[in-house]
Amino acid sequence: MSTDVIPDPGAIAGLDLLLGLSGAVVIEATSLARCRAVSQGARIFDQGESTVRAHALLAGGVRISQFGSDGEQIVIRFIGAGEIFGGAAIYTDGRYPGEAIAIADSLEISWSQSEWHGLLERHPQIAINVIAIIGRRLAELQERVRELATQRAERRIAHSLLRLLRQAGRSSATGTEIAFPLRRKDIADISGTTLHTVSRVLTEWQRKGLLVSRAQRLTILAVDEIRRIAETITAANRR
């Protein structure tokens, strides 16, 4: 379920998309945006949908998944508060390459293709910010490919958890919690390993007191130890 709401320029000003822009530009971008409150589990867009918009997340979490020709679905990435998503379709074939599902109650804004192009043409700094965001994502993708080719599964899982902490970590009474719910399959997909391996590794780490997993909520209790596992050099073959 989604409900249109009035966007808050103060919340939108915190987007990386609008970094370095004046208050007047933020107000302009806000006035053009459609803002929606999206319930957990609601679909924001479908794979292959042709009415594409450029989206940004103000609060909550979004899972981007993609179906292959064999019908198999995998998680591509997670979107945390402050991030843009979905807009790449504007510059490719005009269809969303995956589906976006809210994995927590969320607040998202979006612009139509014409509104988006108008903003970028009038304010080149927005285009520069988009290029910087794409560059960071490309660097992350290259790092994930390198991990898949050279690292064993335990290290890849550790790297994935650290990325999620940087993206959506928040302090809790016991450690650092990833702000949105995660299925073990989600972690398997983004780590390039199997559900069985993720279940085994997370169970072992929980036994050692490195993390706690309850109701798909993951809290890292020993970030330094997870980082040590991620950075450990080993000759072991990846699984």
CATH superfamily annotation of the largest domain: Jelly Rolls
CATH fold-level topology of the largest domain: Jelly Rolls
The main pleated sheet reads as: 5 strands, antiparallel
In N-to-C order, the SSE pattern is EHHEEEEEEEEHHHEEHHEEH
* Overall geometric form: globular
Averaging pLDDT over every residue, what do you get?
A: 91
Query: Biggest sheet: strands side by side, in what order?
Result: 1-2-9-4-7
* CATH hierarchy, class of the largest domain: Mainly Beta
Number of helices: 8
**Class derived from helix and strand content:** alpha+beta
Helicity range:
40-55%
- Number of domains in the coordinates? 2
Q: What Rg do the Cα atoms give? A: 19 Å
Strand-residue fraction? 25-35%
Please characterize this protein's 3D structure.
With 239 residues, this protein is α+β, with helices and mostly antiparallel strands. The protein has two domains: 2-144, Sandwich (Jelly Rolls); 152-231, Winged helix-like DNA-binding domain superfamily/Winged helix DNA-binding domain (Arc Repressor Mutant, subunit A). Helix content is 41%, strand content 26%. It has eight helices and 13 strands. The chain has helices spanning 9-12, 23-32, 113-122, 124-150, 153-168, 184-191, 195-207, 223-231; strands spanning 2-5, 34-38, 43-45, 53-59, 61-67, 73-80, 84-85, 99-102, 106-112, 169-171, 176-178, 211-214, 217-220. The strands form three sheets. The protein has a five-stranded antiparallel beta sheet with strand order 1-2-9-4-7. A four-stranded antiparallel beta sheet has the order 3-8-5-6. Strand 5 (61-67) and strand 6 (73-80) form a beta hairpin. Helix 3 (113-122) crosses helix 4, helix 5 (153-168) packs across helix 6 (184-191) and helix 6 (184-191) crosses helix 7. It is globular. The protein starts with a strand and ends in an 8-residue tail after the last helix.
